[in-house]
Amino acid sequence: NVRVCQAVQQLNNAGLHCTVYIFGRNYPECEDLSKYTCAKYMGQLDKVEYYKSLDEIALFVIASEMESFGLVVADALNCHCSILMSQNVGAAGIMQMREEDFVNDPHDVDESANCIHHLLEHPNAERLLNSVDVQEGISCWQVSSIVILATTRFVKFIFYNKKVNFTSILFFIFKFIVKNTYSISFNYSPFF
């Protein structure tokens, strides 16, 4: 996120020395981040290297405009990173978040810098980790998993059925929903 890099650059210019580590695929917007001296592109790492890197990080920022329930927040908390996120991150629904855990406008560089500075001085990792509602997390994760599964099956359906019309798409969606509705509520209950 360019705004996060700008916020960290602003903090570095004020004498606080931070580095932004960027994980994942090299998307076109990542090229814009290379001009920031505070940014270090990590790329896609295997699990061991990823978790080892997270163990070295004090604050994990996910300032997405929209983020469904992803596991990156859980990964970061598991590695004892404090978390700063936008209001639109689905993982916020499974923890007891406070106002200072959010950046209200991810495009506001000054607000992001202030939030980052605050959480570096007042870490929230232990509080958030202890407040995780496991049952709520499983529900959110199940919904995300269902959406991913449905999308994957839908793409395969279209790929293998070259002659697709609107009716066959609706039928596929209906069939998928009916088939998976009953399994959703029982998938993970044996673990709790």
Task: Describe the protein in words.
- The chain has 192 residues and is mainly alpha-helical.
- 52% of the residues lie in helices and 10% in strands.
- α1 (2-13) packs across α5 and α7 packs antiparallel against α8 (166-184).
- The longest helix is centred in the C-terminal third of the chain and has 27 residues, at 134-160.
- It is globular and about 40 Å long.
- The chain starts with a helix and ends in an 8-residue tail after the last helix.
Gap between N and C termini, in Å?
A: 37 Å
Helix-strand string: HEHEHEHEEHHHH
Strand order of the largest sheet: 3-4-5
The helix content, as a percent range, equals 40-55%
State the main characteristics.
192 residues, mainly alpha, 3-stranded parallel beta sheet, two-stranded parallel sheet, 8 helices, 5 strands, 10% strand, globular, disordered C terminus
Summarize the structure.
The protein contains eight helices and five strands. It has helices at 2-13, 28-33, 47-55, 72-78, 109-121, 125-131, 134-160, 166-184; strands spanning 20-23, 39-43, 59-62, 82-86, 102-103.
Chain-wise SSE layout:
Layout: H1 2-13, E1 20-23, H2 28-33, E2 39-43, H3 47-55, E3 59-62, H4 72-78, E4 82-86, E5 102-103, H5 109-121, H6 125-131, H7 134-160, H8 166-184
Parallel strand pairs: 1-2, 3-4, 4-5
Helix pairs in contact: 1-5, 7-8
